Amino acid sequence: VQLVESGGGPVQAGGSLRLSCAAPGHTYSSYCMAWFRQVPGKEREGVAYIHSDFSADYADSAKGRFTISRDNPKNTVFLQMNSLKSEDTALYYCATDCGTGYWGQGTQVTVS
After folding, report:
1. Which of 41, 77, 80, 103 has the most crowded CB, counting CB atoms within 10 A?
2. DSSP E strands, 39-89
3. Under a CB-based contact definition with an 8 Å cutoff, are residues 56 and 49 in contact?
């Protein structure tokens, strides 16, 4: 199973990025999908979760700024990140089963 994240990169504080997580050839419409992030030396943090019914949960740090969504026909999950701050700098991962299943390799987000 392969999860492929994309959309990361450098961005100025206050800017926006949209991360994508594709699962080619696999259907996860009935699964919780999640975005996590990790900074070197710190524990991996759950940022946003989207459930099979399209309901979503967010870390306090993401509420009001990040939006998770999913396109089931395209087997893709998105994370729209607005009003980015320097503390959002991290390696962002997507994962199945709310983080208990498969993981991607991550995409780096750097906010300066």
Report:
1. 77
2. 45-50, 56-58, 66-71, 76-81
3. yes
The band of 25, judged by pLDDT with boundaries at 50, 70 and 90, is confident
Token readout for 58 is 């967010």
Q: What is the pLDDT of residue 26?
A: 82
**What does the block give as tokens for 89?**
């700098």
**What are 71's strand-pairing partners?**
76
Looking at the DSSP bridge assignments, the partners of residue 23 are: none
**CA-CA distance, 109 to 88, in Å (whole number)?**
8
CA 96, CA 9: separation in Å to the nearest integer? 23
User: Which candidate, 60, 110, 67, 59, places its Cα nearest to that of 88?
Assistant: 110
Q: What pLDDT is recorded for position 1?
A: 66
With CA atoms as reference, report the closest residue to 28 among 1, 48, 46, 55.
Answer: 1
Estimate to the nearest angstrom the gap between the alpha carbon of 35 and the chain centroid: 3
